[in-house]
Predict the 3D structure of the following.
Amino acid sequence: MGIVALAEIIVALFLSKKVFQRNGKPAHLNQIADVFQKIFNCSFGSIYDQQEKVFDRKPFNRTKALDFLKNLIIRKDKEGINRQNEK
């Protein structure tokens, strides 16, 4: 995955308001980005510039990384169901 794909995930998490600070308030975009930079040992430069790149994508390509991950999970789930049916 590239930087913009990671930014897509970060923006989605931020917009969901389901990632919280220690005080219980929703985390800010830059807080989520900082954690991702540490986890994946990368640098976004300005997460706000990356967010803009995500939103500047063509509508059919805007959630490319999230769609890929969703389809991967669905495919693996189906493989697991097929394995269970074979037993």
